[in-house]
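User: Please fill in residues for this 195-position structure.
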């Protein structure tokens, strides 16, 4: 191949690389920087708060096609923690989560719409939430909080925050309603590291 042909080929390859589509970024949920917290009414006198200590998942973000994003989460139902061992055992039992039969609470997205509100970027994530053996559609509004390198300058991280409300009776957990509230307030703070 002549020198001119080699230069022409190099030029074509360089131009082609400029127009190649950006790859979607795949992230693994960082469990040490991810929280799933809930609050529920107790007799209408107070709110009891708790969390799930074991959360995993993945999400994909495509800078070229933001609406092609996807999110999955898996929560170890038995990792529920309300700072009261006796109550936590009751919540794991058949009156509530029944973790022996339904050990995982899972969410999988099937549609994402990205919206801009003032300075905020909101991922409106529709999907299916499976809990207590029941699968129902839910929509989560994930506000993108930020992205960038980790504290040591290595890796790349992206984080979201979400607040929503669920009625536990819709997933077959009706025990002690209304003394223990039906509506559960849920906060998800989610951080992932790029693979």
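Assistant: Residues filled in for all 195 positions:
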């Amino acid at each position: 191949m002549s020198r001119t042909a080699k230069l022409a080929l190099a030029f074509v390859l360089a131009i082609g690389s400029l127009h190649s589509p950006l790859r979607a970024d795949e992230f693994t949920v960082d469990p040490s920087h991810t929280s799933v917290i809930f609050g529920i009414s107790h007799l209408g006198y107070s709110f009891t708060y708790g969390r799930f200590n074991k959360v995993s998942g993945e999400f994909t973000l495509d800078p070229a096609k933001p609406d092609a994003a996807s999110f999955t989460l898996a929560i170890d139902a038995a990792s529920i923690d309300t700072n009261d061992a006796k109550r936590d055992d009751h919540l794991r039992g058949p009156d509530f989560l029944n973790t022996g039969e339904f050990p995982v609470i899972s969410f999988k997205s099937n549609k994402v719409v990205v919206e801009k509100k003032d300075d905020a970027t909101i991922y409106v994530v529709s999907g299916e939430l499976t809990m207590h053996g029941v699968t129902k559609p839910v929509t989560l509004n994930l506000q993108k909080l930020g992205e960038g390198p980790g504290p040591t300058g290595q890796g790349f991280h992206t984080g979201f925050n979400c607040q929503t409300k669920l009625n536990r009776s819709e997933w077959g957990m009706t025990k002690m309603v209304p003394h223990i509230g039906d509506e559960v307030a849920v906060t998800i703070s989610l951080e992932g590291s790029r693979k």
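For context: Residues 3-18 form the longest helix (16 residues).
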